[in-house]
Specification:
Helix content: 40-55%
CATH superfamily: Flavodoxin domain
Number of domains: 1
Oligomer: single chain
Radius of gyration: 16 Å
Number of strands: 5
CATH class: Alpha Beta
Largest sheet: 5 strands, parallel
CATH topology: Rossmann fold
Order of helices and strands: EHEHHHEHHEHEH
Length: 199
């Protein structure tokens, strides 16, 4: 019997039910329809404190802050990861950035301690912005790609959605919802192939 892969969705918005949340919901629904299990992890709910730059993880491979255990467990258990976030001043919101920065132990294990890299897993991201910022998606995309690389994620696609300000704007952009669903289905399919050895 084939195992069902677990697709983890990380929601970066501080606002529940906004455009990036709705797009992530669509992606995870498509992943379930493709046979995966899904789990949602919202940065606004886990409330990770920012990295203090103490460098303890460079010696131990573990974070000394106690509030990240559930987040690390969820990331370690996932067969695939999709991050969805609004773009704030060309970056990601503070709560998600704190979570991103707390991924430093994964970097330390690989580059400081020489431990085996995390297993390669498929994934992707959804980034949503309103308009008017001349720097666009570049900063948020680079930061997200950097974290996903440290976590061993092979990025299948970054879905970029522009012009969504009010919480329901994405509902008037059916193409954005379609692309989010396509990402979810692709990630589920790729993770299923890896989980079940290509069977």
């Amino acid at each position: 019997m084939s195992a069902r892969p677990l697709v983890l969705g990380i929601a970066g918005s501080p606002r529940e039910g906004g455009n990036s949340d709705r797009l992530l919901d669509a992606a995870l629904q498509a992943a379930r329809e493709a046979g995966a299990e899904t789990r949602l992890l919202a940065a606004r709910d886990v409330g990770m404190t920012p990295c203090t730059g103490c460098n303890s993880c460079s010696a131990t491979g573990e974070c000394v802050l106690a509030d990240g255990a559930d987040v690390y467990d969820a990331i370690d258990a996932a067969d695939a990861i999709i991050v969805s976030s609004p773009v704030y001043f060309a970056g990601v919101p503070a709560g998600l950035k704190a979570l991103f920065d707390r991924m430093q132990p994964y970097w330390a294990r690989t580059y400081e301690l020489g431990l085996p890299r995390p297993p390669r897993r498929p994934g992707g991201a959804i980034l949503v912005r309103g308009g008017g910022d001349p720097y666009g998606f570049a900063g948020a995309e680079a930061t997200t790609r950097s974290v996903l690389a440290v976590l061993g994620i092979d990025v299948l696609e970054i879905v970029l959605v522009e012009g969504a300000d009010a919480p329901a704007d994405v509902e008037r952009e059916p193409g954005a919802l379609v692309r989010a669903r396509q990402l979810g289905a692709a990630v589920a399919s790729a993770s299923s192939e890896r989980t079940n050895g290509g069977s």
